[in-house]
Specification:
Layout: E1 11-15, E2 27-32, H1 36-41, E3 44-51, E4 60-64, E5 67-71, E6 77-80, E7 87-89, E8 94-95
Antiparallel strand pairs: 1-2, 1-7, 2-3, 3-5, 3-6, 4-5, 4-8
Length: 102
């Protein structure tokens, strides 16, 4: 099976269920944070969810689809690239502020 080309910084809708405790739930946009060297060779990618709530020093500010929000680096997940039912390409995330991008 060929692995789809997914790049670092791409944003997808990802079904984050099932969850436990304080983990982010539901389907939401997630930005790919794994390096392209991994994305090219593995069936999985590492993603960080995007949220419009909660500003913390370890969350990277960004603008996505006209909304200001944050990349939630404290909730990273590994997801399968082949799972097309839980992931759909959407527009890119623009980093804002002076912090370093994930």
């Amino acid at each position: 099976m060929a692995i789809a080309r997914v790049g670092r910084g791409d944003v997808f809708l990802v079904n984050l269920n099932p969850t436990r405790g304080g983990e982010i739930r539901k389907t939401r946009p997630c930005v790919v944070v794994s390096p392209d060297e991994l994305n090219t060779h593995l069936r999985t990618v590492i993603v960080a969810p995007l949220t419009t709530g909660g500003s913390y020093p370890f969350r990277v500010p960004c603008t996505f689809q006209g909304k200001s929000g944050h990349v939630v680096l404290d909730q990273i997940r590994t997801v399968d690239q082949a799972d097309q039912t839980s992931r759909h390409p959407v527009s890119p995330c623009a980093r804002t502020g002076t912090g370093r991008a994930a």
